[in-house]
TrEMBL record:
This is Uncharacterized protein.
């Protein structure tokens, strides 16, 4: 579970073209096709977050 007091989180904004439901469905479909466990999903998302924080490949 994400500790909202530890990590800064900002909800997606549909008014800016951000579609949270589409993104969630796409991510879940990929994870289902890969048949990964919850612990592997955590590892994957932690890796993605580190890469975004370290290398900033996504323009925010």
């Amino acid at each position: 579970m994400i500790d909202e007091n530890l990590y800064r989180t900002v909800p997606l904004n549909p008014n800016e073209g951000e579609d949270g439901e589409f993104a969630k469905k796409a991510i879940l479909e990929i994870l289902k096709s890969q048949k990964v466990s919850l612990s592997k999903v955590r590892c994957l998302f932690n890796s993605i977050l580190r890469e975004i924080e370290d290398n900033n490949p996504i323009t925010l």
